[in-house]
């Protein structure tokens, strides 16, 4: 009888856990070791296919010199730039912050972000769904996790360049930029003015200040 009860309990727990597992899963599982692009065949897949060299310039940068671009820049190694990641549930981004630059408030809908400061220092923060802000000042070598889907930012408030490497638990973590999504997607001015409890001219000023949308991944 006791055994019977505990098996029932186990079944009930498994039934509860099944949808939970789906919710917590990363990218869909694949049934092959890796996914060959449609225009390739197994014969011409070599080590090159599994290699991404786009970080070479960034990693060989002289951090004592001004960065080549005065703006915040990102080099992504996600599914789009590195097709071998298809089905592997991982990706990287190299982030470069000249002094005084910010990676504006954004979210990654499909993954947490594990950011490692490889050069310089960064001030970072995210806001949870209870609207609580968590911030931290990171030194070279420090690592910070931005939980999946939450709004976050990084800021180089110092006078030295900073560089960080971010790992994602998805081959296509996605990027939703708060400023670009809200003010750069042609949402009606009146809707935004009411949403932000302000007037239409203020909304138009915010829209005008935006640079073109960043590449989506
Ligand atoms: C394999 O060959 C096809 C056709 O020649 C080409 O389009 C594709 O890019 C090649 N793939 C790799 C990984 O070299
Ligand atoms: C890397 O730097 C070299 C030399 O400055 C340049 O020619 C090349 O385009 C750069 N590559 C990338 C991917 O930025
Ligand atoms: C980096 O730049 C600094 C300042 O210009 C220079 O003194 C140093 O030799 C450079 N380091 C390398 C490895 O090129
Ligand atoms: C840097 O940002 C400014 C202001 O957003 C923009 O006008 C400029 O074109 C950017 N420069 C580069 C090299 O992307």
3D architecture notes:
The chain is an alpha+beta fold and 217 residues long. It has two domains: 3-175, Jelly Rolls; 184-217, no CATH class. The protein has five helices and ten strands; from the N terminus they run H-H-E-E-E-E-E-E-E-E-E-E-H-H-H. The strands form two sheets. A five-stranded antiparallel β-sheet has the order 1-2-9-4-7, with no helix packed on it. Helix 4 crosses helix 5. The longest helix has 23 residues, at 2-24. The site of one 2-acetamido-2-deoxy-beta-D-glucopyranose has 5 residues, from loops. Residues 39-40, 44-45, 49 line the site of one 2-acetamido-2-deoxy-beta-D-glucopyranose (NAG). Keywords: Apoplast, Glycoprotein, Manganese, Metal-binding, Secreted, Signal. Belongs to the germin family. May play a role in plant defense. Probably has no oxalate oxidase activity even if the active site is conserved.
